[in-house]
Amino acid sequence: MSASGLYPSLLLLLWSLLSSASSQCDHSSENSKINLNVDYKLPTFTSEFPIQNMVTLDGIIYVGATNRIYALSPNLTKLSEYSTGPLRANETCRLQTHNPNTKLDNRNIALVTENIYDKGLYSCGSADNGICRRHVLYEDDEIGPKMVDDEVYCFTDRARLRKGVDSDVVVSASGSQVLNVESNLIKFFVGNSEIPGNTATPNTHTISVRKMKTSQNGFTFFSSGAHMDLLASLRGNYYLRYVYSFNSGPFTYFLTVQHVSKDSTAFHTRIIRMCATDSVIRRYVEMPLQCISTDKRRKRSTEDVKVFNILQGAYVSKIKEDTELQKQLKVGPNDDVLFAAFAKGKPDSPEATSDSAVCVFSLNHINNMIRRYMQSYECDPHEGMHEGRESTYRLQITQFLPRLEYWHQDLSHTLLTSITVATVHARTVAYLGTSDGRHLQVRVILFSRSSSPHVNIALDSAPVSSSLLLQDQGRLLVATGNKITSVPLIGPGCDQLTTCTSCLLSSRVTECGWCNGRCTRSSQCSSAEWSQEYCAPVITKFWPISAPLRGSTSLTICGHNFGFDKTESFRSSMVSVEVGGASCKLDRHGGWTELQCTPVFNGNFTIKNKDVKVTSGTKVAKMEGFAFGVRKFKMYIF
After folding, report:
1. How far apart are CA 23 and CA 556, in angstroms?
2. 517, 513, 515, 510: which is closest to 457 by C-alpha?
3. Contact 421, 309 (CB under 8 A)
4. What does the domain layout of the chain look like in residue ranges?
5. Which PROSITE patterns match (predicted)?
């Protein structure tokens, strides 16, 4: 063969190498593109002191802050306030041993409402050494609410307290979870944290249940079996933090972060379940919860699994209208679901790192697991707690309940501090707070490629508090440091969403649509082109740039929004392709970003142009530069 006969082969090889180097579509999704610099003007309330808790009663918002209790209107206008500190020793609800001339700040540990007697508010502060104050808010519904400072008194029987009766000592300065479970009486379930190095509040019980006395001057225990405590040998040495509490059906639950065992230096999260109707702690179970992330593309191995062991926040909600999520979780419209924000802890430490994930647990699944382990006796008698006397069961399940994370991909450098969940337009949305003061909103879709936030805004430099408050007006109150911000559940606006894809994927929640290259609400679009249905396709490149006429060359087209609509599925019926005027049969697709097709020639086909044309829905994209050629053969004679 002559040297010239080698050139076509060499050129073909070089072209093939160059083509393969460039013949890859960029599959990075547009739907995660969000402008973090957008600033929205939102209603706020600013306190003189750091805010710890928020509750609502009959539309009025009550705020527990250091040294203050505030009553706010739904639009965050201050209605009244009550000063809880700083306090001297003789001003507290319980005699103190500190210097009588020294004033102590009074941090709000718990804020609880009640509805049975006069509608009231209990504010429990750190300076009152475990005692709560009762604010009488309503004595006559026709008259309306009182100011939060009108009628306030220490909720204790001082005579009984002096005799050493400790049922009025409710909370701990290390932190507490107080849950009011009302039936025909007011009953407080209380979990008090035990943090080594913190000054302990005298006479507090680790976990307890107490009822309000009908005389309305304190609490009483039903019996000595109404509380449990850490063993004396563990107090001051064993880390136990109560993070969240809730009531669901016949049960009361607490979520904790604590040592794996009394002899372990590792930490994990547990769920505690008690019967809400019990007057004493007779039926008590603990079980570890674990949130894990794994590479779903590979067969799971120990090395692939990342464990998020430190609970940061949680929220329990029904998902009545979101039938899609109900099917994924295998729950009904009236079943409770636990949404939990976890972080990866430092080794042998309860301190969280900036690596977070969100996991979703069905309460039915948790209860079924508890039942199964109890029936198989894979439980240990509870270690570390002193029960006082024998009861029906007090058990610790040592086998953890793992759950694959619902969302982690955007949180690998983020420390979540809070979570709440709401249903918006029949879609479940998670509202997340971060340690750097950001507020995120993301739709909950299990196993979805588009689980990226449609809202990610900076509220403050202070961390978002775990105390969030949903309002009936379709807004969420978020506390950061001294400030409360009111954020719409549908999101504060559309300007953060910079691409049509991200705009439309969020549209079922945000009410946004695409208008002349911008994401807006319909009222902000003067054009008739506002759409919540389709995005125009975009071609970025294709190859090869030529092919023999009437050949069977496969053409690859890269771009965006091919067959895309807001259902998040590729719809081939929406897509048609033409090459040089010839129809191109769709062979395969790579989501919304890649198409592969083969030209189809009918009859006496005539080349009309050099365009590659993609039609998606009613929108069209074109790119020039393709050429059909006639096959030419050279004969070499040797």
Report:
1. 8
2. 510
3. no
4. 493-532, 534-629
5. SEMA (PS51004)
Separation between Cα atoms, residue 467 and residue 485, nearest integer Å: 12
Match 């590792």 to its residue by tokens: 266
**323 backbone dihedrals φ, ψ, rounded to 5°:** -65, -30
Give the angle 130-132-138 at the CA atoms, nearest 5°. 170
- pLDDT tens sequence across 552-594: 889 999 998 898 877 667 788 889 999 988 999 999 887 788 9
| Residue closest to 629 by CA, chosen among 540, 553, 542 | 553
Contacts of 517 (CB under 8 A, 6+ apart): none
Helix or strand holding residue 280 (H, E): none
Q: pLDDT of 471-490, one tens digit each?
A: 999 999 999 999 999 999 99
Higher pLDDT, 357 or 590: 357
Is residue 598 within 8 Å of 565, Cβ to Cβ?
A: no
Find tokens 């006969």 and name the residue: 5
What are the tokens at 381?
């008698």
Task: Flag whether pLDDT at 72 surpasses 80.
Answer: yes
The string of pLDDT tens digits covering residues 119-146 is 899 999 999 989 999 999 986 666 778 8
**Tokens at 135, concatenated:** 């604010």
Burial class (CB in 10 A: 0-12, 13-18, 19+), 542: buried
Q: Is the peptide bond before 599 cis (omega within 30 degrees of 0)?
A: no
Q: Which residue has the tokens 């102590």?
A: 104
The pair of three-digit structure tokens given for residue 478, joined into one six-digit string: 């978020």
Residue 146 DSSP label: P
Report the CATH fold assignment for 493-532.
ligand-binding face of the semaphorins, domain 2 (3.30.1680)
Q: Which two tokens stand for residue 461?
A: 């430099």
**Run of H or E including 506:** helix 500-510
Alpha-carbon distance 324 to 626, whole Å?
A: 44
Whole-prediction pTM: 0.87
Question: Who wins on pLDDT, 123 or 632?
Answer: 123
What residue type is 429 in one-letter code? Answer: V
Q: Do domains 493-532 and 534-629 have the same CATH topology?
A: no
Question: Domain 534-629 has what CATH class?
Answer: mainly beta
Nearest to 81 by CA among 102, 103, 66: 66
C-alpha atoms less than 13 angstroms from C-alpha of 119 in its C-beta half-sphere = 16
Structure tokens at 474: 């379709």
